[in-house]
Amino acid sequence: MAFERDERRRRNIGFNAAAFGVSVDVRGDAPDAFDDAARPSVIFLGGGVTQPGLLEACLDSLPAGGNLVANAVTVESEAALAHAYSRLGGELRRFQHYLGEPLGGFTGWRPQLPVTQWSVTKR
């Protein structure tokens, strides 16, 4: 099951899932679309962690032993994850990726936005 507020991105999620031979129930904006959804055992947040109440709603949806993984690329969303980490524990990681790009007649590494990731198992 996936939640996405943007209709175009919802269609893309369904298209990509079908391309890999899997079925995904793609619903609207979280947490509004949680009401009639099955209770998840794992939640992945690719963004939106600064949306008021979203992290809490996701954690409330998980059963004990359920896992939440959230990613952030902005200072504001990193702050939200750092605050959640300080309250609830888990693991906090930061990933940095680079893309090889032409640099004159050579290739140089161009840094991409770092991704901060928080993962936690609900107690």
Brief characterization of the structure:
The chain has helices at 7-19, 54-61, 75-88; strands spanning 2-3, 26-27, 42-45, 67-72, 91-95, 98-103, 106-111, 115-121. It is α/β, with parallel strands linked by helices and 123 residues long.
3D structure, described in words:
- Pathway: Cofactor biosynthesis; adenosylcobalamin biosynthesis.
- GO terms for molecular function: precorrin-6Y C5,15-methyltransferase (decarboxylating) activity.
- This is Precorrin-6y methyltransferase.
- The chain is α/β, with parallel strands linked by helices and 123 residues long.
- It has two domains: 1-38, no CATH class; 41-123, Rossmann fold (3-Layer(aba) Sandwich), CATH 3.40.50.150.
- It is 28% helix and 31% strand.
- It is built from three helices and eight strands.
- Strands 3-4-8-5 form a four-stranded mixed β-sheet, with helices on one face. Strands 1-2 form a two-stranded parallel ribbon. Strands 6-7 form a two-stranded antiparallel sheet.
- The longest helix has 14 residues, at 75-88.
- It is globular and about 55 Å long.
- The two termini are 23 Å apart.
- The relative contact order is 0.15.
- The mean pLDDT is 94.
What is the element layout, followed by pairings?
Blueprint lengths: L1 E2 L3 H13 L6 E2 L14 E4 L8 H8 L5 E6 L2 H14 L2 E5 L2 E6 L2 E6 L3 E7 L2
Parallel strand pairs: 1-2, 3-4
Antiparallel strand pairs: 4-8, 5-8, 6-7
